[in-house]
């Protein structure tokens, strides 16, 4: 045991035995009245190396802890989603631009440019991700009647991001405003000739957004200011919010889409299990 201890001690601290017969020949120099320890010179580089390793490990551990903490928080605030397994989403404090005439690329008279901006965030092809039956059960209760992509497109469960549905609904409301309705009615497939179905679709979009806003209720407040030339307070909608990074979500979904020639919805194969009514 003592031999093992001696060996370990030598390895760690640079200790080496001295021949007693030669001890009298060793005359350590004196420095400023203190004995110079010949082993201390080899000890400092080792201590520096140990401290550097400890510091590096601490930094890595701290970063991993922060990432895990952020991911844990995101999972607590969200239900299960394959996207949560794909990446750790950034959150940041953002001051939204609530100015009345802010020239957002998503607003203004109907045009191909405005439509392209909305299409980018509201139209995503089916996701090219594989889920097990158990993973699907965490999303939905009945995998037996679940739609799949066509075999030539992978045969996966047919999945689209929830966020694109919200943006689709908001986009339909934008298109339906009185000064844009006729423009889109001429060519947009959402503006079906069946007016009753269109009304149901529009009401559905309003209801989906109502539920989403209530589910993610904003507990912030809006202040107001007196403005020269106006008798009533003017609200300041340029408020701060903690926002998830939607560009990260969009980038991930774009990378995990099926190829461009994939239909936005798969055709129904013969003989599949069916629900008796829509969910």
Automatic annotation (TrEMBL):
GO BP: mycotoxin biosynthetic process
Does the record bear Membrane in its keywords?
yes
Could you tell me which pathway this protein works in? Mycotoxin biosynthesis
- Which segments carry the region annotation Disordered? 260-279
Spans through the membrane: 43-61
**Which keywords are on file for this protein?**
Membrane, Transmembrane, Transmembrane helix
Keyword Transmembrane carried by entry: yes
Highest taxon above the source species? Eukaryota
Q: Which family does it belong to?
A: Belongs to the ustYa family.
Instruction: Read off the PANTHER family from this record.
Output: CYCLOCHLOROTINE BIOSYNTHESIS PROTEIN O, YALI0B05434P
- Report the protein name in the record: Tat pathway signal sequence
Organism of origin is Penicillium coprophilum
